[in-house]
Write a structure and sequence with these properties.
Blueprint (H helix, E strand, L loop, with lengths): L11 H15 L6 E3 L5 H13 L4 E5 L8 H13 L5 E5 L1 H4 L5 H7 L5 E6 L4 H10 L5 E4 L5 H6 L4 E2 L8 H12 L3 H10 L1 H6 L7 H9 L16 H13 L1
Parallel strand pairs: 1-2, 2-3, 3-4, 4-5, 5-6
């Protein structure tokens, strides 16, 4: 599960403060995976080394954005970061936000690097995920990066989800996965379909605006988004509230 923040509007020092706070607060009760990716390889290495020294359990590295790079550049970027740390790394593929997609051939090469052990797949391309599952070693883990595809990804060999929905329905999101792994496929499917409307509404505006609004509606009091993100439009807030009420 992933607690959604706004890393792109945090300073380096703020990111370090968040990582340290979470590690100390969790105190080894559950694994902590820190997002330390960047489109600046040097910065990603610095943040990854800091997170490792802060005793996180793993890293989540998004593909470079804006400058994007080539497939060769992607490989060299992740390889260099991995060579500077020893803890497990999950790659994060989200072309809709970064403008670059990790190709199957590149991922196969990256999967051979010892501490690169998984991928958060948010390409929305089930065919691509199926190809990954058919070519990648069994000990390379696939996580769904989209809540509307949890069950489909699990059915292809995925091991879980790095979720938006889990910020407000953690037990229910866990149950979708647990039911599947427990052989209760019908139950997992029923739960996946039950929350589809809410999952859709959590993207009625750009993420993470809706999920933070939903958390505030539920009195989790996470505050407003930082500019350039803004408060949700009233008409969309009503749509989101109606969906939450239905649950």
């Amino acid at each position: 599960m992933e607690l959604h923040g706004e890393s792109s509007t945090l300073s380096t020092e703020e990111k370090k403060d968040v990582i340290s706070f979470v590690v100390n607060k969790v105190n080894k009760r559950i694994p902590v995976i820190a997002g330390t990716g960047s489109n600046n390889t040097k910065e990603a290495i610095e943040m990854s080394k800091f997170a490792q020294n802060a005793n996180v359990d793993g890293l989540l590295l998004v593909t470079p954005y804006y400058n994007k790079t080539t497939q060769i550049g992607l490989y060299e970027h992740f390889k260099l970061i991995a060579s500077n740390v020893e803890i497990p790394i999950i790659l994060y593929n989200v072309p809709s936000r970064t403008g670059v997609n990790i190709s199957l051939d590149t991922l196969i090469k990256l999967s051979k690097i010892k501490n690169i052990c998984g991928i958060k797949e948010a390409s929305n391309d089930i065919s691509q995920i199926a190809q990954i599952a058919s070519k990648i070693p069994e000990d390379f883990y696939i996580y769904s990066g989209n809540d509307d595809q949890i069950l489909p990804v699990l059915s292809l060999g995925g091991v879980g989800v790095i979720s938006v929905l889990a910020n407000i329905l953690p037990k229910e999101t866990h149950e979708i996965c647990y039911s599947f792994f427990n052989g209760e496929i019908d139950k997992s499917r029923t739960l996946q379909l039950k929350y589809m409307d809410l999952i859709k509404k959590l993207f009625i505006e750009v993420n993470p605006i809706p999920i933070k609004e939903a958390m505030n509606i539920l009195n989790l009091n996470v505050g407003n988004c930082r500019p350039p993100l803004c408060n949700m439009e009233n008409k969309n807030k009503k749509i989101l509230m109606d969906s939450l009420k239905n649950i």
